[in-house]
Amino acid sequence: MGARPNTATRRTKIKLAIAGATATGLLAGCAMMGGGGPSAEATLQATKGNSAAGTVTFTQNGDKVRVVANITGLKPGQEHGFHIHDKGDCSSGDGMSTAGHYNPLGKPHAHSSTPNRHAGDLPALSADSYGNATLSTELDVITVTAGPTSVVGRGLIVHAQPDDYKTQPTGNAGARIACAVI
Ligand SMILES: [Cu+2]
Ligand SMILES: [Zn+2]
C-alpha cells in the first residue's frame, strides 16, 4: 500500500499558516469558541486495517483543559487506552510515528486522576455496544495555550486494548488503531 497523504498534518499546517497571517497568531491552531478559551481540534483517522475514527476538542478553561471526544469504530463494550503522544506525525500509517506518550515533565505512566503522570495520559474511552464512545472530562497538567505542556501540534492515539495504568511507559494498551495531530 502506498503512502497515504496525511490530511491531519496538512490541516495543522494550514491552521498554522492562517494563525501566522493574523495579528492574533500567538495561539496556533486555536479558535475562540463561545464562552470558552482557546481550543484545538484533532480528527482521528483509522490506522491501517482498523476502523476507529472521530473528533476530539481541547478547550482551555482557566488553568484546566476540557477534553470532549466522539469516537466510532471501536470494539463494542471494551475500554480503549487513549493518550496524547509526543510527535504530531501519523505518517507511518500504524501510529508508531507519534512515538511515546507526551511526557514533557519526566513523569511515570499513570491514571489521569493523579498529577504524577505523563501529561499525555488521558481517561480511557469506553465503547458502547455499537463501538461508539463519548468522553467529556476536564484535565490539569496540559494546556492549549502556549507553554511547556501545550498539546497543540502533538499526536493523539486510540489503542486496541485497555490501559493497565501500570506498565511503563505504555500502559500495555496494544496496537494503535486511530491517529491524529492536535
Ligand atoms: Cu498511547
Ligand atoms: Zn502514559
Secondary structure elements and pairings:
Elements: H1 7-20, E1 31-32, E2 38-46, E3 53-61, E4 64-72, E5 79-80, E6 82-85, E7 125-126, E8 133-139, E9 155-159, E10 176-181
Antiparallel strand pairs: 1-2, 2-3, 2-10, 3-4, 4-8, 5-7, 6-9, 9-10
The protein binds copper (II) ion and zinc ion (ZN).
How would you sum up this structure, described in words?
This protein is mainly beta and 182 residues long. The chain has a domain at 40-66 and 86-138 and 152-182: Sandwich (Immunoglobulin-like), CATH 2.60.40.200. The protein is built from one helix and ten strands. The protein has one helix at residues 7-20; strands spanning 31-32, 38-46, 53-61, 64-72, 79-80, 82-85, 125-126, 133-139, 155-159, 176-181. Strands 1, 2, 3, 4, 6, 8, 9 and 10 form an eight-stranded antiparallel beta sheet that branches. A two-stranded antiparallel ribbon has the order 5-7. The two termini are 25 Å apart. The structure holds copper (II) ion and zinc ion (ZN).
The number of helical segments is 1
Superfamily at the CATH H level of the domain at 40-66 and 86-138 and 152-182?
A: Superoxide dismutase, copper/zinc binding domain
Largest sheet: 8 strands, antiparallel
The set of bound ligands, ions and cofactors reads:
copper (II) ion, zinc ion
Radius of gyration: 15 Å
What string gives the helices and strands in order? HEEEEEEEEEE
Task: Compute the number of strand runs.
Answer: 10
